[in-house]
Amino acid sequence: MSGSTFGKLFAVTNFGESHGPAIGCVIDGCPPGMELSESDIQPDLDRRRPGTSRHVTQRQEADRVEILSGVYEGRTTGTPICLLIRNTDQRSKDYSEIAQTFRPGHADYTYLQKYGLRDPRGGGRASARLTAPMVAAGAVAKKWLAQKYGTVFRGCMQQLGDIAIPFESWDHVPNNPFFAPVADVSHLEAYMDGLRKSGDSVGARIRAMATNVPAGLGEPLFDRLDADIAYAMMGINAVKGVEIGAGFASVTQRGTTHGDSPTPEGFRTNNAGGVLGGISSGQDLEVSIAIKPTSSIISPRESVDIQGNPVEVVTKGRHDPCVGIRAAPIAEAMLALVVMDHALRQRAQNGDVVPPMKAIPGSIR
Amino acid sequence: MSGSTFGKLFAVTNFGESHGPAIGCVIDGCPPGMELSESDIQPDLDRRRPGTSRHVTQRQEADRVEILSGVYEGRTTGTPICLLIRNTDQRSKDYSEIAQTFRPGHADYTYLQKYGLRDPRGGGRASARLTAPMVAAGAVAKKWLAQKYGTVFRGCMQQLGDIAIPFESWDHVPNNPFFAPVADVSHLEAYMDGLRKSGDSVGARIRAMATNVPAGLGEPLFDRLDADIAYAMMGINAVKGVEIGAGFASVTQRGTTHGDSPTPEGFRTNNAGGVLGGISSGQDLEVSIAIKPTSSIISPRESVDIQGNPVEVVTKGRHDPCVGIRAAPIAEAMLALVVMDHALRQRAQNGDVVPPMKAIPGSIR
Amino acid sequence: MSGSTFGKLFAVTNFGESHGPAIGCVIDGCPPGMELSESDIQPDLDRRRPGTSRHVTQRQEADRVEILSGVYEGRTTGTPICLLIRNTDQRSKDYSEIAQTFRPGHADYTYLQKYGLRDPRGGGRASARLTAPMVAAGAVAKKWLAQKYGTVFRGCMQQLGDIAIPFESWDHVPNNPFFAPVADVSHLEAYMDGLRKSGDSVGARIRAMATNVPAGLGEPLFDRLDADIAYAMMGINAVKGVEIGAGFASVTQRGTTHGDSPTPEGFRTNNAGGVLGGISSGQDLEVSIAIKPTSSIISPRESVDIQGNPVEVVTKGRHDPCVGIRAAPIAEAMLALVVMDHALRQRAQNGDVVPPMKAIPGSIR
Amino acid sequence: MSGSTFGKLFAVTNFGESHGPAIGCVIDGCPPGMELSESDIQPDLDRRRPGTSRHVTQRQEADRVEILSGVYEGRTTGTPICLLIRNTDQRSKDYSEIAQTFRPGHADYTYLQKYGLRDPRGGGRASARLTAPMVAAGAVAKKWLAQKYGTVFRGCMQQLGDIAIPFESWDHVPNNPFFAPVADVSHLEAYMDGLRKSGDSVGARIRAMATNVPAGLGEPLFDRLDADIAYAMMGINAVKGVEIGAGFASVTQRGTTHGDSPTPEGFRTNNAGGVLGGISSGQDLEVSIAIKPTSSIISPRESVDIQGNPVEVVTKGRHDPCVGIRAAPIAEAMLALVVMDHALRQRAQNGDVVPPMKAIPGSIR
User: Which of A25, A252, B336, C52 has the most Cβ atoms closer than 10 angstroms to its Cβ?
Assistant: First the structure.
């Protein structure tokens, strides 16, 4: 309840700081009997981990996950799964300066207001490094959902700063460091090279989606599937906006256009993004998020120090010039965790339900 | 945990259906000793209630609230406050047709998939009528926060379908049926008159904000203040998108622009929307939401019936042609409930904290 | 989370005070499709209600329950069920004296310490009257569990003050005002008549049990079935002790005696009371609770007033001389609520589990 | 919510199995700024750890705790504190036999019913070894409560099998392996030597208490302080009964005797055990628990195997002949965790309350 546990029934408790000895999580509520080993989790961690291209932070972390509990003879036991990732590349730099001033746009100021002290090393708890355990937990959820319902989660970049990225194919996503669904990313590389040179950072727009999501997940009023997705996405570092389906475009749509007509061949459109009245329809879940530019940049900026005096802040160190670049696997994982939790909640209350109607083609249950 | 309780410490449990005998909520965790009577709550309910102009549903509901518990001799006792609102204008129309077909864009289909049955009268639990108890609960939160911190919550319309509405002044908001912050709303009236005539519906964009929010509210990882706001807003009927501060505009911003510089005179800008690292900074909370067009419209649309046969759906009855019109007080209330919950959480954990720095001018703690 | 909601998935939120306009509860998470009407709930309320014999409080309350939501055409819809019970016999007596002094053994003092004010009318929120909504909610749980698993809940009195009551048969329990499992209760009636005359009160020991409880309910570490039962029972007004199975007798037992041997014909004994390692075994749940003597008595006692001055306290008004007399249906209901919650939790996580072994005869799954 | 997290605001998530690589916990919600190092935690772990006398299991575990997060420069940061304890003495014995049969009185059977599989090594998750992380977390709670309110927690043995142990002094407790409050424990040693020789086990009764507990902690209806204590205690392995204050003795008490009279010099008695109406009175919390005899014993017993065939079960290996012997520090820790959680909850809701009356002498607030 104190903000470090995600999920009601598939509950993931996250711990750690950027430069502490370790980060990790405890997954409570995983169904038993599923084959699970580190090799199920490592690939998603590798997709997210830093240092894999010149466009992201150069911090070198293997992000090796260790399963400390909850698995016996290669199968989940139904008891808590503790996943541990040791931090290895914490530079012993001097943080005394960063501890005395506030980076514009950073949590430095608010952590101090809240707690009266903070761990300034690499952002401490506010670091996006803490998404790694969520990616690990998401991999567990993904595996279970894939086996149970054939659910598949995907993420990609839709926009990098000023550059909109058209959707060509999911096949391209793993082949470039941007998670861009296009064959040619040379313009993105040039853009990032220029950005790094300028000492500035930029935002991004990321898409996450899920196919083969059973209909019926979500609650009517609060804990709606879309509300929980919004909560999960806005909980990712640097996210400032969340859309489901048509999102803000629905403001100018008419009811005759927006409503996705069910037909004997399937739904005509997916403006709903897979959620109606807070409950999944069986259509693909479609989510889009806005990620703000990194606040730790080398360009000098106006700020104040702890005494309230005006200062110029310059942030050195290793930082992503666009945190959105590594965000696709994070968004996928958070989406998977939401779906997983609701899949368990759904069968808790409605395990006996037999819907009285024919399912719309293309949707599962 | 089953989706009808909102909040962790200031917990509001909502009940009722659109055409059942009553709707209401139970507020658990309200601090004791606050003067409270129905007259503190009724004004906000009156702002939200239907039938107050020709641009909204013509259903006539007084939305009279009755306090059933938790108040003794005019003061809150710290025990649960039950607020009851009797439904009075449930037309005894025939719902057999609506029960057999699915409105495109409506929760008809997903409720049946989830529960195997549904209350079709006026949308049952899926009706936006269920926001009334939240507005009532929000009024209680608003009063406490106003007394404790001077916090003020406001909401207005930013866009009605194709028409962007510039911000002139909060003073105009109570003077027109659209919650529009402009003096002249004749073009909005004409727009809505045309829309009603066309038998169609349209979306809207709503802004909610709070001033005098103490710094330090929110949690670092999950249960962030912005994440909980996103959850609350996406939980309002028909919402498809949520932005905090610069929102999706932050995608194209540079770090040098986006970061709000603290200065001895205050923050230079508010791209953050009052939240940094999930924790309030003391700046105004700024939220913007996208509301989709109403799915219950008289225009005929393609759909299927329960047997999966193609049908044409026409929805008669009393419906808002733009549910966004009455959404401003709802968004305010949800925002107030989030802030209230976090205000209590903050003093639970950090009641002894004395921040080591000078506060940025313009922010409170 | 603020203490008025019971259960995680079958969550009952209780509201009201002894002399307020109404008491009631909201049940969230009830499975849909179950036939439910007031007549399913009223019988258990009638078993608990006051004024039915000379041995209990003479307050006359019909305890008529009204279903305000969550039921459509006679079936649960899966949405919150609000149950309302209007208070009718609140005597307009003067509570100014009771408000100025502290009854020894009563919550008067602690409520004031906690909240700074309290509703002194009939004990306010501290009244055992607030168990009525739990009995109502328990009736809903009982019905679902009976239909699903054939589970049956029973309660009876084991001891009344100094008088131990041997177990003869469950058949006797409904036939006397004490819920005593004996044919002849004349000695209990004489005992109570003498007690009332003396102006004193006395404690009692109550047994609650459940048969046909599926094996596998409960969690290993916290939220154990026995821990949740202990929580539920200790939450009943005036309870000071809880035992599962052999309870305190297990202190002097040897391991060779205590362990209930499974055999091809069933378990030999039930010292475990149906719970092993926090998880139900399929044996009967056996619970025993200690109820303290009523603290509102007419006999004068030493105390202090609000100013800290010594006073003699005499409590007039209508009170049960032994609150244990009406406790059996309450204990049953609380036990049913615990089992219900865990039945839903169990299928959430373990809905796919097929145990690899033969079930011990006499237990169900 | 899945049963491995304890507490609402001071939330402890436990993970691990008896013979897995590690056990531990994550404490979320600890107030920031408190000095904390392993040396604050290790002493309580040392009191609980195995292998320290011939009367307990001979498993050798150093139970060295490592703080992985949540502490910076020797102070808590307010973010999650992960405590890790590596298992070191897991014997590589053959568990195939224990995996095929059910020990009477053990969780073997119920784990298989629940999960379909189980980790049989040393009892897996059902092992009392999992109380070690709770003792560690309890040490953190104790330190904060001691600094804030001067609260002190103590535990001792009241009865060992047939032998009642009179209370002489808390000073004796640390001086003998039984946590017995007596100077001479030679009779207890002889008793245990005989028991071990007999191959049997025995139960115990343990007392836990707290002094300097602020008045006002606990909730009126559920989440009562006594209910949460009962939940916590019944959650300790092998506990079958819980009493608060007079406990089961209150069954035969009269109201004139049971009610603890407040006087200008303090309360006359403490039959309430420090809790009235679910809320702390400021008197000492007094708790007593019954611990059943160990189910893993060398004496042969009747049982069945997985195929349902009758077998004779003999449990070799290293086991405590009386698990109650090491239970005192566990009970203390669980009590401290409950008080800690409620201390935070209390100031969340009632941080502004000023009680209108004079405090009873001897109680704090």
Answer: A25
Please give the Cα distance from A162 to A187 (Å, whole number). 12
B65 neighbors B136 (Cβ within 8 angstroms): yes
Q: Give residue A94's pLDDT.
A: 65
- SS3 at position C4: coil
Quote the CA–CA distance of C195 and D254 in Å, as a whole number: 9
Per-residue pLDDT tens for D70-86? 999 999 999 999 999 99
Q: H-helix or E-strand containing A148?
A: helix A132-149
The set of long-range contacts for A63-67, using a CB threshold of 8 Å and a minimum separation of 24, is A63/A132, A64/A38, A65/A38, A65/A41, A65/A136, A66/A38, A66/D21, A67/A36, A67/A37, A67/A38, A67/A41
ipTM: 0.97
Side chain identity, residue D18: S
B32 and D354 Cβ atoms separated by less than 8 Å: no
Question: Which of B217, B224, B259 shows the shortest C-beta gap to A301?
Answer: B259
Q: Is the pLDDT of residue C285 over 60?
A: yes
Give B293-328 pLDDT, tens digit per residue: 999 899 999 999 999 999 999 988 778 899 999 999
Q: Where are the alpha helices (H) located in C175-252, listed in sequence order?
A: 186-198, 225-234
B-chain residues within 8 Å CB-CB of C5? 5, 11, 13, 28
Cα separation, A108 vs A101, in Å, equals 8
Contact criterion met (CB < 8 Å) for C33 and A345:
no
Q: Are D360 and C116 in contact (CB under 8 A)?
A: no
Mean model confidence pLDDT for chain D: 94
Answer yes or no: do B72 and C119 touch at CB < 8 A. yes
Mean pLDDT for the stretch of residues B16-45: 97
Angstrom distance (rounded) from CA D290 to CA D288: 7
Handedness of CA A160, A166, A168, A169 (dihedral sign): positive
Answer yes or no: pTM beyond 0.80. yes
- The DSSP 8-state label assigned to residue C73 in this structure reads T
Cross-chain residue pair A350–C220, CB shorter than 8 Å: no
Say whether C349 and A29 touch across the interface (CB within 8 A).
yes
Nearest to B273 by CA among B329, B224, B210, B182: B210
Q: Are D365 and C109 a contacting pair, CB within 8 Å?
A: no
Best of D30, D72, D79 to substitute, by most chain A Cβ atoms within 10 angstroms, is D79
Q: Which of C322, C292, C323, C305 is nearest to C103 (CA)?
A: C305
Structure confidence at residue B24 as a pLDDT band (50, 70, 90): very high
Sign of the torsion angle spanned by Cα atoms B341, B342, B343, B347: positive
CA atoms within 13 A on the CB side of D361: 10
Which residue's entry shows tokens 């305000």? C68
- Chain B window 263-292: which residues touch A at a Cβ cutoff of 8 Å? 263-264, 268, 271-273, 275-282, 290-292
Contacts of B268 (CB under 8 A, 6+ apart): A302, B260, B261, B262
Q: Report the alpha-carbon distance of residue A313 to residue A316 in Å, rounded.
A: 10
Contacts of B217 in chain D (CB under 8 A): none
